[in-house]
Amino acid sequence: MSASGQGAAHQMSHTLPNLPYPFDALEPYIDAKTMEIHHDKHHGAYVTNLNKALESHPDLQRLTVEELLAQINKVPENIRTAVRNNGGGHMNHTLFWKIMKKGGGGEPAGDLADAIKGAFGTFADFKTKFSQAATTRFGSGWAWLLFRDGKLVIESTANQDNPIMDGGKAFFGLDVWEHAYYLKYQNRRPEYIEAWWNTVNWSQVAEHYAAARK
What we know:
Layout: H1 32-53, H2 58-61, H3 65-70, H4 77-98, H5 110-120, H6 123-136, E1 141-148, E2 151-158, E3 169-175, H7 182-185, H8 189-196, H9 202-213
Antiparallel strand pairs: 1-2, 1-3
């Protein structure tokens, strides 16, 4: 944070993170073409449009995307929607790419597994509830596993909203925008969700859980 507090000369420009694996790494569950368009075009556009919205606001340019979204209601009204949509899109996708990997799936272990069982019963119960939140989110949005008021809960949000906007700390999320699955699954969202569980990088999710719990 210290380096970003040295005046307008050190404005931060938000950048598109690299995918941590090749486009085809999540085949056959998520096809390479979807990953390429989703990362390069969709996430790329969120970053471009976020930077554009912040152009004349050097004070906001110095904030991380997390800081920006945590105080979204203080962002000037004329750019708030652009920051909400594009900042949310940037933050959400940055998390999403990390929690998937080639050869993923299975179940979490250790503290995360214990916490899930404590909050939701068995892992199978958690998976059912999370999949239901993702399936029943009307239109575009996300399903999340997060801390809210110290408790582990499942929620869904519309569009590119993130629970950080109203005090939650999400560390696991599933994109249910049609662009995330339409080339392979068309309108069969439940089929995409079921397939997606085979891509989850539980060791990475466990790291996010440990950080969010602090």
